[in-house]
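Working notes for the structural subgroup meeting. M.R. asked for a predicted model of this chain before we commit to crystallization trials. I am recording the input and output together here so anyone reviewing the notebook later can reproduce the run.

Input as submitted:
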Amino acid sequence: MLSQYKFPATIVFVAVAGEEQGLNGSRHLAEVAKDQGWQLEGVLNNDIVGGDTTPGETLQDKSRVRVFSQGILPSAPIETIRQMLTLGSENDTPSRQLAREVLDVSRTYFAPPVTGSRRPGELKPFKPVMELRLDRYLRGGDHRSFNEAGFAAVRFTEWRENYNHQHQHVRTEKGIEYGDLLKFDDFEYIAQVARLNMATLATLASSPGAPRNVHIVTLNLDNNTRLKWDPPSAAGGSVQYQIVWRETAASDWQYAVDAVKYGAEAGKNAVTLPVSKDNVLFGVRACDSAKHCGPAVAPVPEGRS
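Returned structure, recorded in token form:
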């Protein structure tokens, strides 16, 4: 369906081999992307999204999908890790920002109907849930390869897995069916996950990309916040900017305002907001004229105005 549209960015659909043998395919692709200098802004890894329908299962939730994202990379420079811990921004890594973009897209396209009934063609509510960890216990996935190469990447996984249908030979023992069998898949659930992927990809590919050199000015002791940034490196045409923020105990953005509201002008990418930088965590994101926004970028301190 996405092939029917034209985007200013490139969307690539990939199937990789050797995941169970050590993430071989994804590691190779991530290394190629890094070595060739791809401007890779985000990877959406779908792994175990069949919506298990084993008879008798009552705790599966077909209205939600988990989105796992990496926090601080162990391979990051120690100075970077120390700064993030000092600022409390360990949840503002590129992968976490990508996960927040998935949540934002879901609010646009999958929100419950206001009138109580859906209009023709309107999508049923579907909620991605941000999981603040790289992956599940004792498990891993191909998004890790891209994280380790320095790219933003997240993993989509159904709400409740059934391990009888993973890594099992097809058989029946003591009345229990084992194996990854087609009859245990829920194709409507798979379609909802695909729609969420499609909406996210289209939004990201329509956006101007990510702002660069995003800074928060920390020269003075005051209760205002001054933010500065440079345009995305590959942006073409008009670029609009949004300032987003959340309280320090929140995981997702709670507020979003257009930068022009606080005096941002073309070619002068800086704003001063009457919001204390000590109370919230900020991000700056770039949008096109239709409000397709890319992931937010967290500011780092700059000790001058």
